[in-house]
Write a structure and sequence with these properties.
The protein has 340 residues and is mainly β. It is 2% helix and 40% strand. The strands form 6 sheets. It has a 5-stranded antiparallel sheet with strand order 1-2-25-24-23, with no helix packed on it. The chain has a 4-stranded antiparallel sheet with strand order 3-4-5-6, with no helix packed on it. β8 and β9 form a beta hairpin. The N and C termini lie close together (6 Å).
Length: 340
C-alpha cells in the first residue's frame, strides 16, 4: 500500500489546482540537497482521508477516512492504522458498522493516553489505539446554546486532560474535560472565528491555535475564550483561502494547510511566512510527527496521503545536509515497501 514516488499522478477534481504535485516537490525548492532525497512515502487506497496523526508514544500513525458524504450519518467511516515506517498495518482498523462500532464521517483526531479521539459529526468518539475497541462516545446532540446542527471538524489536546473541538458551521470551540466524565462546555462561540476548522495547542505557550475556513484567519484563543487574531487577510492581500489543518514542529514552527489554494505554509516563531509546498491536491487536516520531524498530509479528493521529511533549522557548517536533517533514515536492505 506504500511506495516511493516522485510525482503524485491523480486526475484533478472540480475546484482543484490543474497541476498536481506532491508535497516533496515543493520541499526541493527551498533546501533539499540532491535528487536522492526527492521521495515521499505515499499511502494509497484511502477513501476521502481527512486527518493524519502520529502516535509518538507507540510509534504508529492513524488516518481518518470519511468514505462518503462528510455530513451524512451513514456509519461507513473508517480509520487506517500505519506502523512506525508508514506501512499499512490494517486499512480498516476501525470500521463503522462492524463489531458494534459507530463511525459516520470521521475528521480530526487527537491521541490521549492510548485513546484515539475522533471528531464524528455530532459526537467525539474514543477508541483504543491497540485494539480499535470503542471506549467513549461524547455526544453533542443535546448541548445547550447551539444554533446550528453540530458538525465537528477537529479535536486537539492540551496535554493536561482538556480536549478542544471545533464546530465550523456554528462558529464554536468546545472544551471537553477528559478528567471529569468528559464534561462539555463552550470555550467560545463567536462569529469572528469565521468557520473554525483545524486546531492545535502551541507546544510552548499552551494556547489554542485555530485556523479559519471562511476567511483565512489564524487565531489564538486563551483559557477564558478570548480571541486574538495572529494573521488575517487584508483589503490588499488575500494570502489564505480555506484553511484546514494546523500543527507545530518541535522548534515552534507552525504549519498550515490551505485546502482550496493547494498550499502548505510554514510560519516561523518570528511570524515570517513561507510556502513550503504548492500545487497540492486538496491538502486537508495535516499533522506533524515532532519526534521524527515529518509532516503528514492527507489529500482528500486524491484518496491518498503522504509522509515527508521537514527541513531542520539546525545544520552543521562542516557537513552537507543528509536524510537525517529531514527526519528520514536510509532504508534497510530489502525493507522497502512494495506496491501491491
Amino acid at each position: 500500500m506504500i511506495r516511493r514516488v516522485r510525482i503524485l499522478h491523480q486526475p484533478p477534481q472540480l475546484g482543484a489546482p490543474r497541476t498536481v504535485l506532491p508535497l516533496i516537490m515543493a520541499l526541493i525548492l527551498f533546501a533539499l540537497p540532491g535528487p536522492d532525497l526527492a521521495f515521499a512515502l505515499q499511502v494509497k487506497g484511502l477513501q476521502s482521508p481527512q486527518s493524519f496523526v502520529a502516535d509518538s508514544a507507540r510509534d504508529q500513525y492513524f488516518i481518518s477516512n470519511i468514505n462518503g458524504d462528510p455530513e451524512v450519518k451513514n456509519n461507513n467511516g473508517f480509520i487506517t492504522k500505519l506502523d512506525q515506517n508508514g506501512k499499512v498495518v490494517k486499512q480498516r482498523f476501525i470500521q463503522g458498522g462492524e463489531d458494534g462500532i459507530v463511525l459516520h464521517a470521521p475528521k480530526g483526531m487527537a491521541i490521549v493516553k492510548g485513546i484515539l479521539y475522533v471528531a464524528d459529526l455530532d459526537a467525539v468518539r474514543g477508541f483504543d489505539t491497540k485494539t480499535g475497541r470503542a471506549i467513549h462516545t461524547i455526544s453533542f446532540t443535546r448541548h445547550q446554546g447551539s444554533t446550528e446542527a453540530t458538525s465537528l471538524a477537529d479535536v486537539a489536546h492540551d496535554g493536561d486532560g482538556i480536549l478542544y473541538a471545533s464546530d465550523t458551521q456554528d462558529n464554536t470551540i468546545y472544551r471537553i474535560d477528559t478528567r471529569h466524565q468528559h464534561a462539555i462546555s463552550v470555550l467560545v462561540r463567536d462569529a469572528s472565528l469565521a468557520g473554525p476548522r483545524g486546531l492545535a495547542v502551541h507546544p510552548r505557550s499552551g494556547r489554542l491555535i485555530v485556523v479559519s475556513w471562511d476567511k483565512g484567519k489564524i487565531l489564538e484563543v486563551d483559557a477564558k475564550g478570548t480571541i486574538t487574531v495572529l494573521v488575517s487577510n487584508s483589503f490588499f492581500s488575500s494570502r489564505f483561502h480555506n484553511l484546514d489543518g494546523v500543527d507545530f514542529d518541535k522548534w515552534g514552527n507552525m504549519y498550515v494547510s490551505d485546502f482550496t489554494a493547494g498550499k502548505v505554509w510554514r510560519m516561523r516563531p518570528d511570524r515570517r511566512f513561507h510556502v513550503i509546498a504548492e500545487y497540492l491536491h486538496t491538502p486537508a487536516d495535516i499533522g506533524v510527527d515532532r519526534a521524527k520531524h515529518l509532516i503528514l498530509v492527507p489529500y482528500l479528493y486524491a484518496n491518498t496521503a503522504e509522509m515527508n521529511g521537514l527541513e531542520s533549522p539546525v545544520k552543521s557548517k562542516k557537513r552537507k545536509r543528509t536524510l537525517s536533517d529531514y527526519g528520514f533514515r536510509p532504508p534497510r536492505p530489502g525493507s522497502e515497501a512494495q506496491e501491491p
